Amino acid sequence: MKASSTIENMNLEKRLGMKIRQWQLVSVVVGCLLLLGGCRAKTATGTPPKTAPTTFTRTVTWHTKTDRQNQEKLAHFIQKKMLTKQGIYTNFVDTKNRQTGVATGHELLSESAGMWLQYLAESHQYRAFRQFYRATVTTFDDSGQFSYRYDPRNKKRFAVNATLDDLRIIRALNLYDAQTKTNHYRQAAANHFAALKVGSLKAGKLYDYYDPQTKQAAKTTSLAYFDFKTLKYYEQGTRAGRRAYDEQLKVVHGGYLGNVFPLYASSFSWGDLTYATKNLNTSEALEVLLHLAEIGQLKATSRTWLAQQVRAHKLYNGYSTAGSVTNSGQSTANYALAAMVFATANDQANYRAAMRLVWEGQVTGNSPIQGGIGDAKTQQSYSYSNLTALNAAGM
């Protein structure tokens, strides 16, 4: 990204791109913070699907030699500067004071864990995968679902999960088995999915989060949380599951904002069956497009709009539901997400155009964050940006 907007980009990624949304915690009181090893509900047990998880593997890749080289530098930075025995730092720079609603500094997110597991499976680092998954369970597991956030300084974890982050970890476990042609994690993945069905995926309705201690779920869901490929894998085996999946698709399709601005509403309320009219976070909006692309349901209008923004270098961080720009900052993570959408849609030209913009955000000079995505001057480097770019580079 251009140097003049770098700090703004990093601040935006901190606020919006890391799945640490303050609105997600509106109904969660301070009492939701639990000491590691506190009381827990009974863990659910699931039945693995009968079909092998081959749907999670890719047969075509579009990355270039340059992408691979830059990915190696990025992975080296993450391994040496961000990765710990418990997880991955939210930011390279630690913070003195923690914030209730936003993860900062050296706090850890289950989101980052899932993205790193995905990378390890894709890059055939199976021993490292097994070690990191064990660490992920130790750090984040709570009654079979994963706490979305853990603070190693205070040894505290939030009681609520973030459903998309759980689905991402479940997907990574299945990807490992598909890549290795084993059943090593089939049961563990099924158990984690069963835990979601107890709370944040109850009766086929997907909710943003669930607290297993208070047994309270969110009243809304972000449309970005519908990881259709993973949902279909677990729901296709029964009539009730297929019906639930069809309803989930209807929820997302119903949020389409129209051909003039071909993105989707940010969230859906299960209480009054309405879509939010608030401004869009572009990272979440692109997650919706990616999940649709993965099941062959990305609209041509959406793909064309995204290509236009990438080609013009005008993919902004926020939009109104009418399509006007509400945040003119730009984020490396958003260009990485765009690249993933294009790769999934087999659009090589636009994938490479997006990846060229991704690498503009990589620090190449002598710096403590050399190889990472961030601001060399302030040394701000966020896990979401780094890991999104890392996984986009392997497509």
From TrEMBL:
Lineage per the UniProt record: Bacteria, Bacillati, Bacillota, Bacilli, Lactobacillales
GO annotation, biological process: carbohydrate metabolic process
Domain of life per record: Bacteria
SUPFAM superfamilies: Six-hairpin glycosidases
InterPro entries referenced in this protein's UniProt entry, alphabetically: 6-hairpin_glycosidase_sf (IPR008928), 6hp_glycosidase-like_sf (IPR012341)
Listed Gene3D superfamilies: 1.50.10.10
Protein name: Glycosyl hydrolase family 8
